Amino acid sequence: MDRLHVVIVGAGFGGLAAARELADAPVDVTLVDQNNFHTFQPLLYQVATSGLASADVAYPVRGSAARQENLAFRQATVIGADLDARVLHLQHPEHEVEDLTYDHLVVAAGATTNTFGIPGVDHHGFPLYNLADAVRLRNHVLERFEAADADPSLMDDGALTFVVVGGGPTGVEVAGALTELFQVVLRKDFRQLDVDRARVVLVEMQDQLLGPFSPVSQAHAREALTQRGVEVRTGVQVARVRANRVTLADGEELAAHTLVWAAGVKANPIGAALGLRTGRAGRIEVGPDLAVSDHPGVWAIGDVAAIVDGRGRDGTLLPQLAPVAIQSGRHVARQICCVAAGQAPPRSPFRYRDKGTMATIGRSRAVAELPFGIRLRGFPAWLAWLGLHLLMLAGFRNRISVFANWFWNWLTYDRGPRLIFRSRPRADD
Amino acid sequence: MDRLHVVIVGAGFGGLAAARELADAPVDVTLVDQNNFHTFQPLLYQVATSGLASADVAYPVRGSAARQENLAFRQATVIGADLDARVLHLQHPEHEVEDLTYDHLVVAAGATTNTFGIPGVDHHGFPLYNLADAVRLRNHVLERFEAADADPSLMDDGALTFVVVGGGPTGVEVAGALTELFQVVLRKDFRQLDVDRARVVLVEMQDQLLGPFSPVSQAHAREALTQRGVEVRTGVQVARVRANRVTLADGEELAAHTLVWAAGVKANPIGAALGLRTGRAGRIEVGPDLAVSDHPGVWAIGDVAAIVDGRGRDGTLLPQLAPVAIQSGRHVARQICCVAAGQAPPRSPFRYRDKGTMATIGRSRAVAELPFGIRLRGFPAWLAWLGLHLLMLAGFRNRISVFANWFWNWLTYDRGPRLIFRSRPRADD
């Protein structure tokens, strides 16, 4: 029997976990991603706030492939498929098209920003979902300070007001990191500027920050942010965004040149493009074993999949978080392993183990909710957050670099990579 | 008496050195650069060949300004000046215009690539003079491998042939680092590709590489490069460049998708734009004290200045190298210090102390020519090169990061930041 060919679309947490779980299986694996690197999304906010360099949170996929005999990589975009013939159509960056046949297709294409159709967000908002987003936000933030330094009257127009929308972990983390950047680093960098006038406004439509956390953690996060100067506005939505104004649903208008959009994601539209049935927020419908019904050999995992929470809550979908992606990727890989070993597909249902959630709130502060009711906050939570994220980072080198950077930042109150740098391609590139 | 205002245009080696030398002088200093960071140009070739991350060779100028009381910074481009009124016209990135009055103007705007009008080089060549150049080349090189992996027939068209033009230190270093990247890293990354077919061709119009070095060092460099698989072509010029072909003056046509242009620089055109008298390759004419005649208070240093070598060789200009820039920057700063202290300008002539030159040729190999006839090659030269460049790097953090990266690369034969990443701005940015 020929070796099975498993094609995995997406080199995020889910796709990489699936690929690694297949390392010893008698299959050939091809990982497809439009970038040649895996992005460690939980630390993108630190790139956006000059705490880490972009290379620190990016890990070359071929670094994994080089160490795994049965793993190949294709830098390409999926432009379609013939699911009956089990052929995937790829487009390479320079427009060559390639047909890739597969026995198993694992769709792990992740999510993208959801702006919920709020006017102006698509155009003016800064999402924080991929590496380009993070670098773009970093450039923009630093440019606001350069502009205000050259012409302080711009501050009256909101040049140094930064509105962060979304009170989940990303919003909380970016708001905390922004105030810290301003107070700790840019205050020294811009001595002639009244940096105290820089504002960070965190807007959340629910009444509490960090929705899924316990009230104690929620209150701690709000208090820590407020103490550090973040203006927290809960229970209000953004109604409209222009280049220099953010209008809230209660009519308030904030003069602000920056809107960070951390309010929600929707599934990568690949599901619909492949003709798969999609449900809420475009997520691909999967069975309890994460197989896509009607299309034998097709699986979906992570953010792109509508995985029903099997723990009793009727029909609730699992959250779009890294641990879900990793665990679902491993689950599908194990199903495929069985088939490759000549067994019938076990069709065993995926069970998510919730290992807790965490969010940092700037220097030395965090909240963490772990299994068995363990709740940490303040410095211990922050240490737990650091340790966990170092462990999760792909690549030993990146771990060392991130650790060294964190230690340096913590020790010196410095931020090294506060660079305004765009790598514009030339016209003919 | 009011404090003198010294405006320095350019935050390269020369501009930074001048600014630092003025730290204790009773003057106010404004450093102007179009980027908010200083670029450590000698290591750009390592960014281009995935050895270092872009943040490793960029140091935020405001990091210097934060530590130096009398130093301010403006991120802006010089668009003109009224030299009689001593006013400099700046344009900020968002197009606001600012007039900056000065008592002393130090032009330290560096150089730019000189393509000598050879057809196609402007359009298809990859220069290696600033950070954007380095990242663009890195992306391009890695993309050639991704493309060839997806379609090996592209190799016949030259997808994996890399022509480096210019046998000076930059050309030698980039050629050596490219072969090393291919043989040590990409061979593992692209297991399905015959990476041995990748070619690096180094073209130099003179008969020897490393023109200013001794024949012994020249021979060593050629031998080391050849040993590592670089095809060295001396005594021949490039006649014409197309997207996938490089035509040499002797009629040979190389199928190559990449031309690295390291064959020469010319002065930043700012001299002519300001109405200053320029000489060879656009360099601003200066007196022996580096003052620009006819324009009291204007000085020029480093690559942009036509500094006559005072060591006897009639009319020869000093080379466009970092040590010249640094020493000339300090010299001008000391002249200005005297004036600020109320003394007459000393008009003392600038004397360049040649502290030697070095070039690496990949892993563990280099040539170095130091004063007193000391010549090193091989491993000792490589260690000397490493040490000197670590010392020269601006910023303790960058030093640590570069050192750690080098140690890692040397130990593991890995290259971390082999990322294809462009931080494209959004349309409205």
Describe this structure as you would to a colleague:
Two copies of one chain form a homodimer. Chain A has helices at 13-21, 44-48, 61-67, 121-124, 131-150, 169-189, 215-227, 270-273, 322-340, 378-392, 396-412; strands at 4-9, 27-33, 37-39, 58-60, 71-75, 77-82, 87-91, 97-101, 104-107, 111-113, 125-127, 161-165, 199-204, 230-234, 238-241, 245-248, 253-255, 258-261, 265-267, 284-285, 298-300, 305-306, 357-360, 366-369, 375-377. With 429 residues, the first copy, chain A, is α/β, with parallel strands linked by helices. The first copy, chain A, folds into two domains: 4-34 and 76-113 and 265-340, FAD/NAD(P)-binding domain, CATH 3.50.50.60; 121-263 and 356-412, FAD/NAD(P)-binding domain. In chain A, strand 1, helix 1 and strand 2 (27-33) form a beta-alpha-beta unit. In chain A, 52% of the residues are buried. The model of chain A has no long low-confidence stretch (mean pLDDT 90).
Q: What name is given to the CATH topology of the largest domain in chain A?
A: FAD/NAD(P)-binding domain
Number of domains of chain A: 2
Q: What top-tier CATH class of the largest domain in chain A fits best?
A: Alpha Beta
Helix and strand content put the structural class of chain A at: alpha/beta
* DSSP helix fraction of chain A: 25-40%
Strand order of the largest sheet of chain A: 5-2-1-9-21
Q: Based on the structure given, which CATH architecture of the largest domain in chain A is correct?
A: 3-Layer(bba) Sandwich
For the sheet with most strands of chain A, the description reads: 5 strands, parallel
Average pLDDT for all residues of chain A = 90
Strand content of chain A: 15-25%
Shape of chain A: globular
Residue stretches of chain A low in confidence (pLDDT < 50, at least 5 long) are none
The largest interface is: A-B, 66 and 66 residues
